[in-house]
């Protein structure tokens, strides 16, 4: 057991006006299973890179262990090679038999090491890389969002595997994963940083209690300040009025006054002025106690969406529908409807055809040139290219006439350039679009930046804001919450439950599924 000690850490990117971290100090244990959460863009990945020594910083980071990072950055030319061929480039001290043992714990066959890496699914790649990480000794592991793009089965395997491990820092927005796998939480709040024992749910419960207390204390101080200000104003007014009567008086109207009255009035005035000053000092103390109370309060704005009402009740209908590529059928004899008011969850293993079915619905709804530019992508590959030649469909897939769809693709790689340029290209009202991004807690300084410099979570928020701004009868969201922070997930859940738009969505966050889906359709 050893410690990782961070003292007075200060860091700012070159050219930036604000520090990412400022005088941050904390200590963690290398035996902990540490969850790491915070808003998108707050500096989680930056902190991991600081631990890895990638950037210069002020302050100190002291550790008796080395750090290793997930996921490995694998170049495109490596995708045709087997992991066993370049394993030692990532982990020079790794022994292959240890990796095989770790793969066995995740119910994976050793032959994955000897297959071209590009042929492995997202889940297989994740598990191979985790097996390599945990086969090394004397490392504290930095695991950055391991469950993105994983289906439910793969998530459960990764969750069970990490539950048995220790000595890692896990960056994740998956509340179910954090509850299952961590025993301490490191939180980047709005202003401060805190370390707390427990999992996500225990931290969230404590946060709600703390926030409620601070809001009550803030209200108490606010009322006390108001009372003291009024009392101080009355005391000052009385003193000023009384002071003016010391010199000069009408002997007829003020027949009871004499030469001894002046010092008496002066003494009373001085006493009242002193009392007013004491009240002002109490006001300052109250303000000081009030400051900082609400600095870490999460008070997300209420998002809005304006779904349209279609004249037909059934918006999408499939009858004996099927499709596939070449000789491989992804779907056969599929009967399916989406009715107004439903929020339908598509669920199934990676590769079972969820995204392909979504693309088919988009194609059925209208000519390709009327669709958003992202609608013709299938996991980053254009359907107009290699796959279109072998794509086949059978049966019937129809959408209601005049159906308007608002769509979120799981891919963000096309987001480049300025937000202003994006709004012009997509036909969006720029001021409203940026207002929604601010409500999703995108920093104001980012609004004039370039999207290729955004974090993955911030890019996802661009797509979510774009979808919310489009009035539609049907909202189709394909893995919308990948990389989205916990606070924004809760904010989006509240939005959907309030406005109840008709939806078809793919999402692997169990908590989101349980709250939002009114019906589940299993594929595969």
Characterize the structure shown:
It contains 14 helices and 19 strands. By secondary structure, the protein is of the alpha/beta class. Helix 11 packs across helix 12. It is globular.
DSSP helical segment count: 14
Secondary-structure class? alpha/beta
| Total beta strands | 19
Mean pLDDT reading:
85
The percentage helix is: 25-40%
Largest sheet: 6 strands, mixed
Identify the strand order in the major beta sheet. Answer: 5-6-7-3-8-9
Unreliable segments (pLDDT under 50, ≥5 consecutive)?
368-389
- Oligomeric organization of the protein chains: single chain
Describe the global form. Answer: globular
Taking all Cα atoms into account, the compactness measure Rg is 31 Å
Q: What share of the residues does DSSP label as strand, in percent? A: 15-25%
- Report how far the terminal alpha carbons are from each other: 46 Å
Concise synopsis of the structure shown:
This protein has helices at residues 44-51, 83-90, 96-105, 122-134, 152-163, 175-181, 200-243, 261-290, 354-365, 419-426, 430-439, 456-469, 486-499, 510-516, and strands at 3-11, 21-29, 33-38, 58-63, 66-70, 139-144, 168-171, 184-188, 193-197, 314-325, 328-339, 343-347, 377-378, 381-382, 391-399, 405-408, 474-478, 503-506, 519-522. The protein is of the alpha/beta class.
Summary keywords:
single chain, 524 residues, alpha/beta, six-stranded mixed sheet, five-stranded parallel sheet, 38% helix, globular
């Amino acid at each position: 057991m050893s410690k990782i000690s961070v003292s007075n850490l200060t860091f700012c990117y070159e050219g930036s006006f604000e520090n990412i971290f400022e005088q941050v100090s904390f200590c963690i244990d290398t035996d902990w299973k540490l969850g790491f959460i915070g808003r998108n863009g707050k500096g989680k990945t930056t902190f991991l890179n600081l631990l890895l020594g990638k950037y210069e910083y002020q302050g100190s980071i002291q550790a008796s262990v080395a750090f290793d990072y997930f996921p490995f950055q694998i170049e495109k030319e490596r995708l045709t090679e087997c992991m066993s061929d370049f394993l030692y480039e990532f982990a020079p001290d790794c022994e292959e038999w240890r990796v095989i043992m770790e793969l066995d714990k995740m119910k994976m066959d050793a032959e994955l090491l000897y297959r071209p890496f590009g042929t492995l699914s997202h889940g297989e790649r994740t598990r191979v890389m985790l097996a390599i990480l945990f086969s090394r000794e004397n490392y504290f592991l930095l695991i950055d969002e391991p469950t993105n793009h994983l289906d439910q089965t793969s998530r459960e395997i990764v969750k069970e595997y990490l539950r048995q491990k220790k000595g890692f820092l896990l960056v994740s927005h998956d509340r179910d994963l954090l509850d299952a796998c961590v025993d301490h939480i490191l939180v980047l709040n709005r202003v401060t940083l805190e370390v707390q024992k427990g999992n996500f749910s225990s931290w969230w419960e404590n946060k709600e209690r703390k926030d409620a207390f601070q809001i009550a204390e803030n209200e108490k101080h606010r009322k006390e300040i108001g009372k003291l200000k009024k009392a101080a104003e009355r005391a000052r007014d009385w003193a000023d009025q009384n002071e003016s009567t010391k010199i000069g008086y009408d002997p007829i109207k003020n027949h009871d006054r004499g030469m001894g009255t002046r010092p008496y009035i002066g003494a009373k005035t001085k006493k009242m002025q002193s009392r007013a000053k004491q009240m002002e000092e109490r006001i300052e103390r109250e303000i000081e106690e009030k400051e900082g109370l609400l600095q870490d309060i999460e008070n997300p704005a209420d998002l809005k969406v304006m779904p349209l009402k279609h004249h037909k009740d059934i918006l999408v209908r499939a009858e004996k529908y099927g499709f596939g590529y070449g000789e491989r059928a992804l779907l056969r004899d599929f009967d399916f409807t989406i009715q107004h008011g439903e929020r339908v969850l598509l669920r199934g293993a990676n590769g079972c055809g969820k995204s392909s079915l979504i693309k088919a619905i988009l194609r059925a709804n209208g000519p390709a040139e009327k669709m958003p530019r992202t609608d013709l992508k299938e996991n980053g590959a254009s359907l107009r290219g290699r796959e279109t030649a072998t794509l086949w469909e059978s049966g019937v897939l129809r959408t209601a006439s005049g159906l308007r769809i608002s769509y979120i693709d799981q891919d963000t790689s096309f987001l480049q350039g300025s937000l202003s340029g994006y709004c012009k290209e997509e036909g969006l009202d720029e001021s409203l679009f940026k207002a929604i991004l601010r409500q999703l807690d995108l920093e104001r300084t980012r609004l004039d930046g370039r999207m290729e410099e955004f974090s993955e979570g911030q890019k996802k928020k661009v797509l979510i804001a774009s979808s919310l701004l489009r009035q539609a009868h049907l909202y189709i969201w394909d893995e919308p919450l990948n990389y989205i922070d916990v606070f924004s997930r809760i904010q989006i859940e509240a939005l959907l439950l309030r406005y109840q738009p008709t939806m078809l969505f793919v999402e692997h966050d169990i908590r989101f599924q349980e709250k939002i889906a009114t019906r589940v359709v299993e594929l595969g």
